[in-house]
Design goal:
- This protein is about 35% helix and about 20% strand.
- By secondary structure, the protein is of the alpha+beta class.
- Among the domains are: about 100 residues, Nucleotidyltransferase, domain 5 (2-Layer Sandwich), CATH 3.30.420; about 180 residues, Nucleotidyltransferase, domain 5.
- The longest helix is centred in the last third of the chain and has 26 residues.
Amino acid sequence: MAIYVVAYDIGTTGVKSCLFSISEEEKIKYIDGHLTDYHLYLLDNGGAEQNPDEWWDAICTSTNAMMHKNGIPPEMIKGISFCGQMQCLILVDKDGKVLRPSMNYLDARATKQFKEGIAFGTKIAGMNANRLRKWLKIAKCVAGSVKDPPWKYNWVKENEPEIMARTYKWLDAKDYLAMRMTGNYSASPDSAFAAFLYDTRPDKKCWSKEICDMVGVDFSHLPPLVQSTDIVGALTEKAALEMGLQAGTPVFSGGGDVSLTGVGAGAVEPGDTHIYTGTSGWVSSVIEKQELDINAMIGAIPGVDPTSFNYYAELETAGKCLEWARDHIGLDDLDLFVEHKFKYEDSESAQKNIYSYIMDEIKDVAAGSGGVLFTPWLQGNRCPFEDVYSRGVFFNIGMETTSREMIHAVIEGTAFHYRWMLEEMSKKAKTSDPVRFVGGGALSPLTCQILADVLGRSVETVNDPQNVGALGAAAVMAVGLGFVNSVRDVKALIPVAAKYDPRKETAPVYNRMYPVFRELYKTNKKMFHMLNEE
């Protein structure tokens, strides 16, 4: 007999509530989902914030809509879990009330705190040698970016001391929502690691008070740790009433987007590699021994499976670049926003059809986009170089360059950056061929083929690639409820939907352009700082 669970994919610009069935026969099956948007507020001082109340309102709206549409009685929902955006700074008081907007992973205002906390004195790779050694010994990672959570925490401490004085706990996105549903505070190991405050040593696996003391974080602000497959608590009467679900429903901890997207992609065994394109993007490969490349800013995040890690390289603006191109290049020439073209019931349908229209418009652009290159660093970059001042560039535009070629170049530029990260990762970890490609970007066959061509590797997609994070959260519940023995067993439940092999005829074009792409940062680094550094 099937049971039903609800999984939330908490993204940068919206939450998707997804309904899954779990049974002995079909295991995990996607039934339906509902996307509700919210805002990302970009501030003039480099801040990037969100309102957690908007997350909650979106969850309640989308859950009620989904349950009503499918006619599932609330008592049939046997579990709730999350796949969440990571590295948020959400400060709450003793009553669980949010004290200020969440500082998003893109927030880059803590330059002063970063310099005072790690970028001073005798340096290795731009970081204080003594603190770097201590951090690496304990955590096998380091907060090497101004966007990393400890520096955001210290920014609040310095600039909003009245907020810090009232702070009871610091939570990430999915841990805040679990608390709002249950009243209980918690974090999973991947959340803790993403805060750069987690002791990964085999005999520890806990928050590190030593690191907290070193960087000025109040250890009492950190919540208890649980596994992703653990039940955090039961849905409260108040939350159940707002969500349209039944009080007492078990709420599982779930995991961050990096951890659970790989699970939903079926990339769960050592050496399995997946690439994700949503608002942000990344390349991740499963490894059994923790690795770190401090020069390329690649680290290993604890996996949902406690015996493995996700060796992970991040691109902060991936699909966001195509969204930018849609809004600023496609607006006039491609006639994208004529109202009669895109009238749909919800924002997800509208987005799918707008992007399908774009792909159809650029499908005949030749590989190389007429020689135009684009760098996808619209909000700075983190890997394989960390530079908050780097920006997007269109390079080699000529009189004959068209808007279609420029939009095509945006897709190629993102793929070039993935290739760069994948090559750096392969120096220390096994990476697979084929690669699983997931996220909203994997909905387009054109994007999949361009990625395969640029990487020179085969690319596989799965069904509903935009929902793999939520599928990963459902898989966590399947393990926690005893329907699946382990996270690694999930792979057999996720078939390949399509495969794209690299085309030999595009290799000379991309192999000529790729070295130029890599040089664009080195060549322009000084100018980026001259223009963008205050």
